[in-house]
């Protein structure tokens, strides 16, 4: 079982995976930032999305909590690139 899903199951909490790709200092000026969200409980997703919008960012719901592991893997990829001295934005196709 994935960590986020396990926390939800064991605690009975409505877990939303979010805010994991950027360091804390980034949130002082989050305009233009897209924040991926995963969760199984629509009211909890709505609350997390409202928090994202309050920061000036854009929420992007990617699906159920079972996809949280994919978000964690992306974070590892981004952090690895950054520590290697590479701009992670250069490794991701723009639209």
Could you explain how this protein is built, in words?
There is one protein chain. By secondary structure, the chain is of the alpha+beta class. The protein is 40% helix and 15% strand. It contains 3 helices and 3 strands; from the N terminus they run αββαβα. It has helices spanning 3-11, 42-54, 68-83, and strands spanning 16-17, 34-39, 58-63. Strands 1-2-3 form a 3-stranded mixed sheet, covered by helices on one side. Helix 2 links the parallel strand 2 (34-39) and strand 3. The radius of gyration is 14 Å and the shape is globular. The relative contact order is 0.18.
Give the secondary structure arrangement, pairings included.
Layout: H1 3-11, E1 16-17, E2 34-39, H2 42-54, E3 58-63, H3 68-83
Parallel strand pairs: 2-3
Antiparallel strand pairs: 1-2
A few lines on this structure:
Helices cover 40% and strands 15% of the residues. The chain has 95 residues and is an alpha+beta fold.
Strand content: 5-15%
Radius of gyration: 14 Å
Shape: globular
Mean pLDDT metric: 89
Largest sheet: 3 strands, mixed
Q: What structural class is derived from the secondary structure elements?
A: alpha+beta
Put simply, the count of helices is: 3
Quaternary state of this entry equals single chain
- What is the succession of H and E elements? HEEHEH
By DSSP, the count of extended strands is 3
Helical amount among residues, as a percent range? 40-55%
- Strands of the widest sheet, in order across it, are 1-2-3
């Amino acid at each position: 079982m994935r960590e986020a899903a396990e926390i939800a199951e064991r605690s009975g909490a409505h877990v939303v995976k979010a805010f994991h790709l950027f360091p804390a200092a980034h949130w002082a000026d989050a305009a233009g930032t897209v924040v991926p969200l995963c969760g199984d409980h629509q009211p909890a997703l709505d609350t997390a999305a409202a928090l994202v919008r309050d920061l000036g960012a854009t929420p992007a719901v990617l699906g159920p909590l079972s996809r949280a592991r994919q978000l964690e893997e992306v974070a590892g990829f981004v952090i690895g690139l950054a520590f290697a001295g590479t701009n992670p934005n250069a490794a991701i196709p723009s639209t």
